[in-house]
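Methods — Computational structure assignment.
A single polypeptide chain was analysed. Its primary sequence is given first, followed by the predicted tertiary structure written as structure tokens.
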Amino acid sequence: MIFVGLDDTDNAESRGTGHLARMIAADLSPTYRVLGVTRHQLLVDPRVPYTRNNSSATIVLDGNETLDVAALADRVRALMLGDLQPGSDPGLCVAGSVPAAVVDFGRRTQRELVTQAEARGLAAAHDITLLGLSGTQDGVIGALAAVGLAASGEDGRYVLVGRSRELAGMQPVEMLLRAGIIAVQTLEGEPVTRGLVAVDKLRPARRGGAPIAVVAWAGDRWLPLKLD
């Protein structure tokens, strides 16, 4: 897989980073196989400057050693600069092989303060593309964290996967599976194979490196849960 991390791309009035990530994924889809776009929650703390909820995004692509990471980074960088928002501090990270140290860094950003210097040093040590595009460039922290968290396979939720965003209203479980979600299950891990799911706010969790819809029973239907 190839992971493209974005952070700090918005301001208080603009579209969010997740929306931009979906736009970029759509632009990349004729060339690359897009496996999904995931949202990752970072530390919420008054000492951390952020626009809304301090979340970052990762575009997950199907790729291998032959994929030109530098060319991909240049393309995404151009798309981000083409939609640059005033006052934003965007960062971009593109990586294939993601070491455990970067996954650990992502986890740390969810519970403690980290610095640009740490992010840049870690990326340089592992030959990972990490670019600050404007402003303070603080987005490099969240961009690297997003890549690490997505690569862990056990964090965040999908804001785009398969045809899941095309679903609306009440849908049988089998329609979710046809739309690209790997499994439907309860919070306790019990598989759900039948019944109707209210899909308008469906955001599958990234677990086991795959999109898993986690749901709760509400009398006559399954309601989707949003997990970080």
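Note: The CA atoms of residues 59 and 174 lie 26 Å apart.
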